[in-house]
Amino acid sequence: MSFFFPILMLFTFSYSVVILLHWYGWTKKSKIIIPIQAEGISVLVAFRNEAKNLPACMQSLRNLHCAALPHEFIFVDDHSDDHSVEVFHQSQFAKAKLLQLTESSGKKAAISMGVKAAQFPYIIILDADSTVPPGWLESMLLSAVNGGFKALGGLVKYKEEEGFLNRFLNIEMCSLMGITAGGINSRFPVLANGTNFLFRRDAFLAVNGYAGDTFASGDDVFLLQKIAQKFGAKSIGFNSESSALVLTQAPINFKELLHQRVRWAGKSKGYRPLAKTLTIFIGLYNVVMALVILSALFFPYLIPFVLAMFICKMMMDAVLTVPVLSRTQQQHLLPYLPVVALVYPFYILLTALATLVLKPEWKGRAIK
Fold first, then answer.
1. By CB neighbour count within 10 A (0-12 exposed, 13-18 middle, 19+ buried), where does 298 fall?
2. Alpha helices in the chain (DSSP H)
3. Do residues 286 and 344 touch, judged by C-beta distance below 8 A?
């Protein structure tokens, strides 16, 4: 018992330092966006079986305020077996063109096809189950141009729905956004979100796109890491303005969530050393906390350790998450923070166990 408490406290202190470093990165001011003559941008939407979500996505793109910006919309179909292609044609979206994969498959192949067809130097990828605000494209492009970035991330939140799961996931997303932005602004980019990720076409080609990447997912993170490795961390930026906030569809049930998280965990094997270390550390801390909580049910002397860890973790998570909740106008989720802080370690533990036995699927397709 005498040595157990110092070890847990050292672990908790290290976790707190990691979170505070990312919070500091989040607080760094974005560059002032000054309207300039942009070079043009291609919006790339790779999709598979998105007949239900395509209309809303395309309508939001129609509503963009970007008439002064040279732009195009490229949709790439990844062998959809629903009515996605018919929905695209029925939309009569004159500015959008459709490409279809034939020999290859997967989101990375779809993005690569879109990049090859793009006519503008900047490319931004968006998921078909996402919608964007009117000022999104201009905000992202001008932020990238003014910052001289080779790649740029942006804010993402889940579309709000009823139920605890959606509230839980939106709080988790805010935490992930804080880590993403904090890491990028502190010059150690680790994460990105593939439904709001911009990059220069020449940078994509310079790193050979996804060549050598054997993971089915990770189209965002692996590209981010390759660009950072070749051009340096200063070549990566993040737009934390609400004008660039993308709404995307959350997993609709726990089974879908578990498959998604197992896919995410699987791609972490291909992370660069810094990203892998950070991912393992945060995951391990949550697993240890879950195990300590369970142990306290049988060994009451652990209760003070559990309370100390829980209070410290909840405070640190709030420091990082609350500013993002505010920026994304989700302050109504603040009362759920203590509950999420208690549930989250068990959620991570369950995900870790699921990676050992679950074979993840995506859109009816097995993921290796």
1. exposed
2. 4-27, 54-62, 84-91, 107-117, 136-147, 164-185, 201-206, 221-231, 254-267, 273-296, 303-327, 337-357
3. yes
Instruction: Provide the terminal-to-terminal Cα distance of the chain, rounded to the nearest Å.
Output: 43
Beta strand pairing call for 361-362 and 365-366: antiparallel
- Decide: pTM greater than 0.85: yes
pLDDT one-digit tens code per residue, 124-142 = 999 999 999 999 999 999 9
Architecture in CATH of 30-250? Alpha-Beta Complex (3.90)
| Dihedral sign computed on CA atoms, order 287, 293, 298, 300 | positive
Q: Rounded distance, CA 313 to CA 285, Å?
A: 10
The single-letter code of the amino acid at 187 is: R
pLDDT tens by residue, 286-339 = 999 999 999 999 988 888 888 988 999 999 999 999 999 999 999 999 999 999
The ranges assigned to domains in the chain are: 4-23+272-361, 30-250
Q: What is the dihedral of CA 45, 270, 222, 109, to 10 degrees?
A: -40
Q: Decide: residue 113, CB within 10 A, 0-12 exposed, 13-18 middle, 19+ buried.
A: buried
In the 8-state DSSP scheme, what is residue 305? H
